[in-house]
Amino acid sequence: MLSFEETNHDKLTADLSTNVQQIKAHLGNSSDVTIREFTVPINRGAVIVYLNNLVNKELVHSIMKSIFELLKTYSEKNTKINIPSLSYICKNLLVVSEPIIISELSELHNAILSGHTFLHFDGMAEGLAIDTAKIEKRNVTVPVSQNVIRGPQEAFTESSETNLSLIRKKIKNQNLWCESKFIGDISKTKIEVMFIKGIADEKIIHSILKRLDSIKIEGVFEGNYIEELIQDNNNTLFPTVYNTERPDVVAAALLEGRVSIIVDGTPFVLLAPALFTTFIQSAEDYYHKDYGFTRLLRFFAFFITLLSPSIFISLVTYHQEMLPTPLLINLASQRESTPFPAYIEALFLETVFELLREASIRMPKAIGSPISIVGALILGQSAVEAGLVSTGMVIVVALTAISGFTLPSVEIGIPIRILRFIFMGAAAVFGFFGVMAMIIVTILHLCHLESFGIPYMSPFAPFKLKSQKDNLIRMPWWRMHYKPDSYRRQYITEKKINTEEEYIKHRKESPS
Amino acid sequence: MMKYSKIIISFAMLLYITGCWSRHELNELNITLGLAIDKLNGRYYVSAQVVVPDALVAKKSDFHLPATTVEASGATLQEAIKRITTTTSRRIYLAHLRTVIISEELAKSGIRDILDFFSRNNQIRPDFYIVIAKDVSAQQVLSVIPRIEKVPSQRLYRTLQNSEKEWGPTTGVYLDKLILGMTNQGSEAVLTGVTVIGNDASSAGSKSNVERMEGAAAIQLRNLAVFKKDRLVGWLNEDQSKAYNYIMNNIQKTSGHLPCLNSDRLIGIDIMKSNTHVRAFVKNKRPIIHIQVNFFANVSEVQCPMNLNQETQLKQIEGEAEKKLKEIIVDTIDEVQKKYRTDIFRFGHKFHQSVPTYWISVKDHWNRVFETLQVEVSVDGKIVNTGSDRNSVINKLEQKEESAE
Where is the Spore germination GerAC-like C-terminal domain (chain B) (predicted)? Predict the structure, then answer.
């Protein structure tokens, strides 16, 4: 009886009491299931089934009322004591949403579980499901993870309907199309795929839909479930799908020809394809008249946060000749009282910083600020005074941390943090030689990546002059009548992808 | 996948079995800012001045010596430097070397071994100054504790830099420039001399030297030492040193004086900018060097009654200045030609560049040609400024005296 598979093709029977028995058995007699049996004006038994907490009871009531009226007028007009066909009821019933005619029990379950009210008349092997869903949801609030000073201050919520409406509100165009899917064998989470027909590349849309269809998973509770299952390359730390809680970012991405995937239940909407530069650009770059100065700063910060500890380690343990003499002497005097090698010192401080960071996320807000004070003052200053670490190293690690926080996407921070430790190891063993070798390896890896067929490092590699308008810097809007076309068809090398089949073949062949 | 990860892991382990060769924490290094090299009975005596980082940045008021000198001797320089480790806990680190002081005796007997060592050593950058200790041993120069700068070698480095810029008769010579100057065809090298002055030179290396208001021992730069190949053959005096720098176009700023209107009083001249062109050519089969000096100067002092508002007076000063400069340049070249017979002005190099065919015919006996080389000097000066007071105070005073009478 208990089954999670969709292969349950049991049909509804014409007998009302059998159906009720079946429904009760399948839903385990759950306490939140309401099964209301009653008699309709044509003197026939009927039943409505709904989940207490998922439906708007007033709506259910009004539906019952209109059904009674409908059948009453019907029986007055027609002397035959017969019930009208379900399609007649569908056509004449006064409800907003289209009722669905249901004949299989599995369909019935899906409908009830997503807030529909099921209506069944005795003697019919079919029933009606009418949308009466009223699901509790949060109001639209200010974004928490992607703040801007100037720009829209609304964020997505957990409800995919709200999220869809927020996007629709921004792009009023008939070409904004939306396709829904239910993913998750048990959770049956609603996924909406949105794109602008004619701007988004057909192959990308096709490949996203196809990959979504091939997902096999029990439940989906956050966009990352989907992200990991549809990404191009699984052997990478770098994100190839972007996520955002900002409707304006999604709207802008749709205009660039990207596809958004809205997962019900999370305020983070996925955007694909996503390139390396996407993660360093911020929505605010387009809202201020600085033409990308802060964006350049962020690219600079990317290198600082990735490289500064390893460069510092290399300088003080291998390449002392590269420091100016007075600086060398200052650093040497700090070193006098530090017992550990510079690498261990950096490792210690970086670990402490990562711990603090993690702690400050997990901590309840009320004690979050004491933690940062403890971290900054006690650990920083006292560690120096206790002779555990040198002041120079504290400054370097602090600089690393600050630079890391300038990056608008949390996602890109993850590979940076992991790579930073690897770079530090390379610096400790080989100095600048090791750091350079690691940089080369990293760049090679980045150039090898693709996001839905688009080279991850474009428009740097392959270099596309036209797209530089909105890459490192942002040209003023009056210079961007023709939008950069990173995500458009031209970028996909024709050899690699023409169809999804070829794409899959290409993935299998490529050694990863 | 398993195979790949095994390969990757084994490579990663390989990395770590190398250890960290050539890795040195900062507190394992003796950061050496200066070296003093003396030679006695065929052995090199090397003193390395290393910083004491803690003392150098200490904020406390009590005085710590910010640097210390460690020394050892050896048959070769490298031996001597390595032997220093017997007296100190850290290895000598030469990449930040600022000054090398070579004793006069050693320089007289030739410094080619030293230059070879420094240019061969892969740790050393060639951007440090080399100076000659005059009248004192090299080690003595190194151990004079400065009162303003902290580390003696650093002080010497900055003194050279500054006096070269502001005063003129000294010239800072980096290792690479020195080697080029010695080894290039048709050129010889010079080095600046340095000595120790002060009433009480014996306490130069102790704390008491810093506590004296006056008369403390200090170092002083002394003119230029003339080299023939790698041997020191003599010294130029101050005027000659200045003339040398004029000819080599090294002068950035300097000061001089002129006699004032046939009296024994003086006019002070500040050279603000000087530019020299040396041309080499052959005329009637005779090699000729033509030196053209252009300078811009300010009048900085006037000790006699003179009205600088009058252009004739300025012209007169200009003329005097040109005449005097030409005189010292000609005298210097003459003395070097006659007395030292070494082409420190790099005239041969000029011929090599401008008249290569002629150079090939004389390069084997260039020194003899140099001794009798005809040199033409022309000087063109311009007084551009007379300071903020055009009419001199002395002039005003004398006018007042006249009116009082």
Answer: 224-387
